[in-house]
Amino acid sequence: MSPQRKLLLLGTFVHSKTQQSLDIFHNAGIAVDADGKIAAVERDVPDLSEAKARLLTKLGWDEAEVDVTQAADGQFFFPGFIDTHIHAAQYANAGLFGKSSLLDWLETYTFPLEASLSDLSRARRVYARCIRRTLSHGTTTAAYFATLDVAATNLLADLCLSMGQRAFVGRVCMDRTEMNPAYYRDASTEASLEATRQTVEHVRRIDPGFDVVSPILTPRFAPSCTREVMAGLAQMHRETGLPIQTHLSENPGEIRLVAQLFPESSSYTDVYHRLGLLTPRTVLAHAVHLSEEEAEVIAREGAKVSHCPCSNTSLTSGAARVRWLWDKGIDVGLGTDVSGGYSHSILEAARQAAMVSRHVAMNIEIPRDDDDDAAAAEEKTKEKERVKLTVEEVLYLATRGGAKCVGLEEKVGGFEVGMEWDAQLVGLSHVHDDGELHHDGGGDGDDHGFVDVFGWESWGERVAKWLYNGDDRNTKRVWVKGRLVHRRR
Ligand code: GUN
Ligand code: FE
């Protein structure tokens, strides 16, 4: 790749300060070096030209060697989103799930589609479109499940690298003869492990430092896998430190199946625990129906949870309890889980996380007034309030929380010096490409203006409106590691 130009970003910046709070700073500038790293941050300066001058002086950079992007009024820079669980192959099925639930959905919709992507021209069409669309919605990092097919999985890695999306690419392991369809399963345990090694080696060739694209070890879920393949992948993790991703405790039928298939285990989580798959580099998708003990094991081993609210509702899997997972000390990120989830947008996942937490709240029953246990009623009322997730919390899940899930919290998810410039420029008002702000009442066109309709909102309120009303029309530009990877026309 040719060396990149240095960048100066000027304007308003918003990122998570803590799990509960956003840091919003104005009249600010960020300088990004030719490696895509944040070299300096200047905040709360009198104006943008001063921010620019200070950055250039501080770093000894010449104005001629930098590209400057200045956010217009009503625009702000926000960290790129992190999708901690998405099936790239299933992008072609987004929206197709009917009334199915997990196990019949896999058989009816999912396995036939995934098997068909061993045709590389089909795979290329689906994967390129998936990457392009997720980038245009601000997803700068994605943890992908591909398919069984090595060549198609390697192609997904090639496309992520060339299109500039940071990605974890997993070749899916499914070696259990009786549980997978004959047309879509590994020939043997050894073949499954060998195919995984081939993808690892391919990614090592195209991105030797796993700088942008990394392999990820991917046992599909316990019912698809033998003990031997799961133990083999755990061994590979111990030898290489590579991350792991799988599904856990998504649906009651699935949980019963796991209990039948693994009678030696005390729970679904225990299956992975015994086989060495619970590690600080493991991402467990769903984790809807965990017991207290299971959550404690996950917390103790430092494994992470990918919360997939859109999928969990679409397939009627259940409502995962993010507050409860957090209370147990488990790190949580967001996953679209396309196409269990119909939307490929992490902004959508964030708002669905907020909505699902309200469903969890509504399911907490408060003893009626005429019951004599007033203290219990008060306790439940407090709990009901507490389980609801705020705007700040779901945006944390979408950025820093996701980064922690995939082991990238030192690199992406916020705007500190030394982190990499994975970011999006968000425009909320009627800003046209010429940078002019148009208060013409016509903002419901392509610019999707819904904020400065009134003009009196605080910045916190603007961000809330973006969360609940925004979409890709608001995502004006997207960068990964300092490279511009999407620009809205
Ligand atoms: N469990 C096993 N495979 C899958 C999958 O493709 N999607 C979801 N949501 N759950 C799974
Ligand atoms: Fe999934």
Automatic annotation (TrEMBL):
Its cofactor is Zn(2+). It comes from the Eukaryota. Residues 78-485 form the Amidohydrolase-related domain. Signal peptide: none annotated. InterPro entries: Amidohydro-rel (IPR006680), Metal-dep_hydrolase_composite (IPR011059), Metal_Hydrolase (IPR032466), Metallo-dep_hydrolases (IPR051607). This is Amidohydrolase-related domain-containing protein. Keywords: Hydrolase, Metal-binding, Zinc. SUPFAM superfamilies: Metallo-dependent hydrolases (SSF51556).
